[in-house]
Hints:
The protein is α+β, with helices and mostly antiparallel strands. It has one domain (about 5-405): CATH 1.10.630.10. The chain has 15 helices and eleven strands. The chain has a six-stranded mixed β-sheet. β1, α1 and β2 (about 30-35) form a beta-alpha-beta unit. The structure holds protoporphyrin IX containing FE. The site of protoporphyrin IX containing FE has 25 residues, from α5, α11 and α15.
Amino acid sequence: MTDAVAFPQDRTCPYRPAPGYRPLAEQRPLSRITLYDGREAWAVTGYALTRLLLADPRISSDHTNPAWPVANAAAAAAREFGADQKKVISLLTALVGVDDPEHRVRRELAEACFTPGLVDALRPKIREVADRHLDAMVSRGAPADLVQAFASPVALVALYETLGIPREDQEYFKQKTQQLFGPQARAIHEELVTYLAELIGKRPQQPGESLLGALVTLVAERGTPADAVPAEILQMLLIMLVSGHHTTSSSIAIGASALLHHPERLAGLRADPSLVPAAVDELTRLVSVTDGVQRVAAEDIEVAGTTIAKGDGVFFVLSLINRDPEHYARPEDLDWDRPAPDDHVGYGFGPHRCVGVDLARAIMEIAFRTLLERLPGLRLAVAADEIPVQPGESFQGLVELPVAW
Ligand code: HEM
């Protein structure tokens, strides 16, 4: 093995792995990386090995493990927050950041609150949200920043509709949730619990209408004492919000940049919109926004001719895993005619695989359909390599995406 590669590194093209990851790709399926603080960790880059390890109970998601690997100084600083902020963070990471048996109990609740038909029932509302934001963007005139004008607010408001936050309360909810990680964390959390208790009391919530509606029934069935119900429901809603907003927003924005950079593919999609669902999955594979899923080894693991030792940090580099040439023919191509465009690991794999995957797909599909149908002249207003990416992150986002139409 050669010297450990620095991780994370910035992308130069929004939808391609950082050029500095080339040695990691060459050393597939496993190599060493150096983190911002000089600590070393493992980078998993092979598709088959990823499916093996992410399903292995010795690969832990316990965020509280002192050996937990962090990608940058901001993430490390969050681990040093005050007691109130830490409490809020532990509430919000109580699904993605815990192992079984704790994980299983909360995961069952998370899965059950996506009642059958819920996502389909939400589609008209999501389309209305997308149309409303596109109207506003168009009325302001080109050029526009597709991140701020469309991708981010559409993903956020679609999530509010999914959660069951009434439209007139969404601005309030937005402000309060933004303050949840600040110095007033405890007071804001209490205020949101009170808000939710009032909302639940105002009118009966229907399970097929929103996550809130489903949770009111499910949490009561679990025997949660009545006075603890609003806090438990709030926790699940916030988990969905925190997990679902930037992931979906970035997937729309970076996905749009990839699509606009492939005019011939874009024309094919316009000609046959029935291809949009497959295109959404292929874009999710290609852009891999969650480009460093973290874990820590809870025990020694013999794998790929080496030992991942107990306490070692592990990053699953999804952009490289989703381009493993042993699994994908022509992995760099944007090609939704692949035999199985949905078999990528852009939503993770194993017990923590994205629980909001159907919703994510629906929001992205509606966002792309809206753009395709309503803006036939949509194009990048700068070259693909001039689009500024968020620096210093393993999670991929764009600073802005200038477009014209
Ligand atoms: C395109 C958009 C999205 C992408 C790329 C994405 C990606 C992911 C990935 C990679 C994981 C696994 C994390 C891990 O293993 O540590 C994950 C987990 C999760 N996602 Fe998503 N996600 C998206 C949208 C959403 C949405 C819309 C929601 C909810 C409404 C959501 C809720 C969650 C939750 C709650 C988890 C944790 C599941 C668990 O730990 O059991 N995600 N997501």
